[in-house]
Amino acid sequence: MGSVGLLYVGAVLFLNGVMLLGWIDSKSAAPLNIFVGILQVVTPTYLIFTADGDVNTILGASGLYLFGFTYLYVAFNLLMDLDGTGLGYFSAFVAACAVVYAGANFFREGFGDNGFGVIWLYWAFLWGLFFVLLGLKRERIGRYTGAVTAIEGIVTGAIPAFLLLTGRWADNANLMAVLLAVFGVVAFVALWPALQGSGAASGESQADVAV
Predict the structure, then answer these.
(1) Local structure of residue 135 (DSSP, 8 states)
(2) For the segment 117-165, what is each residue's pLDDT rounded down to a tens digit?
(3) Contact criterion met (CB below 8 Å) for 164 and 36
(4) I need a surface site. Which of 56, 77, 138, 149 has the fewest CB within 10 A?
(5) Are 5 and 22 in contact (CB under 8 A)?
(6) Per 3-state DSSP, what percentage of the chain is helix, strand, and coil (rounded to 5)?
């Protein structure tokens, strides 16, 4: 994923997370979802058209659509008050694809790195939560999902993006993979008893329209 696009994925994940936590009005998150959604559709389209048949470039670009379509879907739900079930089941598809992209980063020669392998697993977990929250209507995990979303906006979006933009990622990718894996397990397990089932009005009332 391009470093600039990754930065704004981090921004929109953070915003959607705090929306699920009830800190902002749901419709106020729609513009950023539209902006980032369009960015994550235009960018991979350009990359694919200019890839000259390079399989790895096309494979990498294809994953960006998962984000672009998610955020545009969120914006439609927010602005049109749609039921969130469709978005939830689309999130299940995204989660399954994210596992495949994680595997490609771990094992495909010349494609990715271990750091992004772990990041894709983060995203698989997060979109899996979206499926449970929206597709299966388990509103009791609304605040937990919001907290995980906001945290992932920082640790899988903003931090890696700035490391990439400053040229620091390549030399530290394996270290980041270990740090991210340890942090994710500890933080998300610790958050579960504190936030699941505590559904604030926001988590329950906005679950149908938000990711």
Answers:
(1) I
(2) 999 999 999 999 999 999 999 999 999 999 999 999 999 999 999 999 9
(3) no
(4) 56
(5) no
(6) 80, 0, 20
